[in-house]
Amino acid sequence: MEQWKAVMSSANRAYQEGRESDAEQLYQSACQRAVPLLTEWQDHEAAIAMLAVSNQNLADLYFSQSRYDEALVVYGGLLRTLTELSQNKRGDSQLAHFAESALEKAGAELSQEVRRRELALPESNPDLEPIRSLMS
Questions:
Q1: What is the pLDDT along the chain (136 residues), one digit of tens a residue?
Q2: Helix H segments across the chain?
Q3: pTM for this one?
Q4: N or C, which terminus of the chain has less Cβ within 10 Å?
């Protein structure tokens, strides 16, 4: 967890300093570091939050650069992972509960961003289906 925090801190600092390429690489690293914490970390709420924050920060970076397709792919992957976790495939009800809450929040944030930017959700990305259904 401490490594994840250090990477996220560095990524946020790079973004604030305008070093967007560095921030992108660091956010990608944070996303990768968050995945194993889902099963290794006992604090499921924190592990889900780390996964969501990592992916959302990376997607926000892409949105700020008008790289909308890449942002939607990142969000789509996050939604897919949270959906799988919320369906309790690993048999952990706490993890499923926190994943479901994060899924609702991430879905609402993405829906708002898509509406604000007047983006079309690509039909080719099935991971965005929950967002399409929210927006219809």
A1: 788 999 999 999 999 999 999 999 999 999 999 988 888 888 889 999 999 999 999 999 999 999 998 999 899 899 989 998 898 755 678 888 999 999 999 988 888 888 898 888 778 878 777 677 766 6
A2: 2-16, 20-40, 44-64, 68-86, 93-117, 129-135
A3: 0.87
A4: C
Q: How many whole angstroms separate alpha carbon 72 and alpha carbon 9?
A: 23
CA distances from 88 to 27, 81, 93, 108, 117 (A): 27, 11, 6, 21, 33
Q: Which residue ranges make up each domain of the chain? A: 2-135
Residues whose CB is less than 8 angstroms from the CB of residue 48 and which lie 6 or more positions away in sequence, other chains included: 38, 82, 85, 95, 98, 99, 101, 102
